[in-house]
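Example 3.2
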Amino acid sequence: MVYFFTETEFELQDQDFYRDWIYACIDKEQAKIGNVNVIFCDDEYLLEINRNHLQHDYFTDIITFDYSDESEINGDIFISIDRVSDHAFEYDTTFDKELARVIIHGFLHLLGYNDHTEEEQKIMRQKEDESIDFLYHDSEE
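Structure, written as tokens:
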């Protein structure tokens, strides 16, 4: 099951819509979801997690903790709404599209996709784009 929580003033609207989209994306990857928590927070909250758990002292848009096993994906996905907002402006896209990109990015990590090398980043971006196209194509029908 996918659960949404917030540690900031942001509240995800139409959670069932996003949940259904995530399930469809995971299904396309022929994977099964166990329990995944998506926690929306601000920059400072995520910076503390970054410092305490990863020993990184910088802002980031997402941190994913993977607890998956061979049978299903499980984990915690922390997303900074501040970074999503800034990146939407920086990349000249809507907040909703950038939020969707970051959400699915976390799930792709849980599916085993990485983004350390240039080739991995290319694959990750392709998977993100496919998922976002699926979201917006599906929601227009």
